[in-house]
Amino acid sequence: MAILPNRFGxxxxxHDCALAGCLVLVACVGYGQTKNSCLDCHAALPDPLGVTxxxxxxxxxxxxxxxxxxxxxxxxxxxxxxxxxxxxxGWKGNIExxxxxxxxxxxxxxxxxIRQFNPSLRTDQLGQYHTSVHxxxxxxxxxxxxxxxDCHGVHDLRAPSDPRSTVNPVNVANTCARCHADxxxxxGYSIPTDQFTKYSTSVHYQALAVRGDLSAPxxxxxxxxxxxVPPGTDKVQNVCSNCHAFQxxxxxxxxxxxxxQAASLPGCxxxxxxxxxxxxTDAKLGTGPEAVCMRCxxxxxxxxxxxxxxxxxxxxLDQAIRNADKALALAESSGMEVSEARLAQGQAVDSLTxxxxxxxxxxxxxxDQDIQAGLKIAAKDLQTGRDAMVERNRRRAGxxxxxxxxxxxxxxxxxxxxxxxx
Amino acid sequence: MTVDPLSEPAQARRRTIKVFLGSGLLAxxxxxxxxxxxxxxxxxxxxxxxxxxVASKLSELKPNSAxxxxxxxxxxxxxxxxxxxYRALSATCTHLGCTVQYRSDLRQIWCACHNGIYDLNGRNVxxxxxxxxxxxxxxxxGDEIVVSRKREA
Amino acid sequence: MFAALRNWFDERFDWDNLIAPxxxxxxxxxxxxxxxxxxxxxxxxxxxxxxxxxxxxxYYRPGANEAFxxxxxxxxxxxxxWLIRSIHSWSANLMIFTAFAHMFSVLFxxxxxxxxxxxxxxxxxxxxxxxxxxxxxxxxxxNTLAFFATKVGTEITGQVPIMGKPMMIFLRGGEEVTxxxxxxxxxFHVAVLPxxxxxxxxxxxxxxxxxxxxxxxxxxxxxxxxxxARREMTFFPNFLLRxxxxxYLALGVLGVLAAxxxxxxxxxxxxFVPAPAGIKPEWYFLFxxxxxxxxxxxxxxxxxxVLGVLAxxxVGLVWLLLPFFxxxxxxxxxxxxxxxAVFALAYVAGMSVYGxxxx
Lengths: 422, 153, 359
Fold this sequence. Notes:
Oligomer: heterotrimer
Order of helices and strands of chain B: HEEEEEEEEEE
Largest interface: A-B, 33 and 30 residues
CATH class of the domain at 30-278 in chain C: Mainly Alpha
CATH architecture of the largest domain in chain B: 3-layer Sandwich
Strand order of the largest sheet of chain B: 1-10-9-4-3-2
Strand order of the largest sheet of chain C: 1-2
Structural class of chain C: mainly alpha
Number of helices of chain C: 14
CATH topology of the domain at 30-278 in chain C: Cytochrome Bc1 Complex, Chain C
Radius of gyration of chain C: 23 Å
Mean pLDDT of chain B: 83
Strand content of chain B: 25-35%
CATH class of the largest domain in chain B: Mainly Beta
């Protein structure tokens, strides 16, 4: 709360002057307000102590009118360093790592204060932080763990919505990786350091970094941000279902749900993995290196048969769609117009996608419904493609007939001219 | 009948020319005229035009239900609200292009692929969709529900 | 019966006198006579364009929301619609090609010289009109390629100093290429241009009819010195029969092109989609397009594009008036005009090929 009186004091002075209508004074106070003797020296100092006006002006706090004094105390109006950074002026100096969450929380946990800037901004970050692994370890005296500034930056702290912010969805995985991917730094903690490497091969990373889909999950989506804790094995399904709702519905009615719970297996993760989730293919149902079913099931049992059946139906529809695609492409390359069937192909692909989702019920009857719907469309499209080729051949036959007629006229004309000119 | 003064071979040649020219001209004209005549007969499938389509019959939908219809080269979603009014929107999710569906329990439009939710005005209210769905105009003509592209004001 | 009908018309129209010039019309025969067919073939293709164009009008509907769909309807639903449209498109391209070939043959045979200056001028104007037909017709299916080609094409018009901007707005029916442009282009394509073309075509044919066929200058000198060397054939029926052979041949070629390579439809134009890479105009505009691309963006103090457009305008004007630079004495023909024609042919062909392969 230390900064509040200070700030209100300045505002009070400005208010008085405005009432007095004294332009000169306003100008003077205005000068006093922007005067920041800290930067005079610190702009020239080397890195840990160096802060330039340019850097600080990027900081969301600076933009909202806060200054060095707001966090560090002291008297920025005083040109004498000794006086400016004296205990008498309330100077706090370097903020200890342990104190940082508390200092940030002094404003960010105060709804009344935050409301002045952004009424919808959350104020529970500090409370959440205390529940996180980071917060608990910090309380236990471990200063290697992340505090606010480690993730959000300091002195050029940007709003998370700013694409340059270290906690913007696009950048946040890199920010986490600064510590969590550093095997040296993480020595002494019993957790792996390959999460980021794995994540960067995942379909989610592809969606976020390559396709720029900001809704794709990154570290905090599953682990939380201020209250970062792994979601726990039995709750993984809840986390995934936030986006993969239909898969969740199917999985809910599957026999795996009970079995996995009984064996304390982490739901979705059992088959899909966690950080390195790749784009699932039908091969997952197979028996090759990507296959997952047979890790638990015995070959030849009831489930293995169901697995084989599911794989066959998926492959069948996939093949049917490809065949229809090929037939349509051939028709198109011969200049036939088959855009209607092309459109219908989209629906066949939709059916296949739906069947691949329905797989999570592990019920052959449900999957078969989608497969049959898709097969019907694909068969029709294949027929359209073939009909188009038949039509093409008919056109060529028609052309042949008229070419013969044209040829006869040409010969006839030639002969006639010959006769005429004897 | 005039007597042909020409010799036999000349007569034969004349006949050849006649056959070639006569049948050739006849056949070629037929092959030009036939397609044109067929072209002139309008096909049974009436062309409704690109900006308007009959999405459904009045009797097809019950209150608080919906159906997918084809609109040009994309699917559309026609919803009958509980109060009997109609709404038509593009059915292609703005996230990854899945086909959205109407959830009568939520009274919202839902995309099964990644749990995207739109309200009945097509606005993306939760989940990954980055943009709202395009909304079409609906009007009734006899017992047909006609959907058309929104006219620019 | 035929004779009776003829008599009936003769009594009322003086038919025999009307077609008398045709009876007496002759065509010189020499080793370059083949070039005389080109004009006739172009005329024939124009006729095909009129016929297939009228047929297309039965189903085509202009308008940004309907044009593409109606062409798609013609291509898929209407019986033989694909044939009519493919012939219209192929015949258009062939016609532009034969018109260009006709122009160059007239140049090389020096058929434009006195007294045929007006024939040349009307022919050149027809060539410009034919290109206008091509440009306006290309947009009508309202597909992506056509949309952006039109955008680029009208943009170039906008480069002309002073007049350019109003001209571009006139062509586009607004600041941008929209449905309004389509409506306009449709009007140009089916009403304005055909009207102008018909008048000019009649004038062109009348002039050809009045002046007879030109003979290359060298041959003309020979034939003047030695009148017995003169070879001619009557237009009717000898030349016309040969011309008919050429027409039938053209029909066969058109049939093959239309049936084996039907003109495709492309993807419906969407003004909000970014322009696909490598947008190019139709091949007959490529040489101009490529030239404009090659001119540096600033030449001295003038804008490169402006300079290019002005240069083409000037060249076009000179080309239009070329006969007036020629001597009327067959023995004193100006060789630089032939040189210019050779250069122009090489330039147009080279630039078109370069433009086709350039990225």
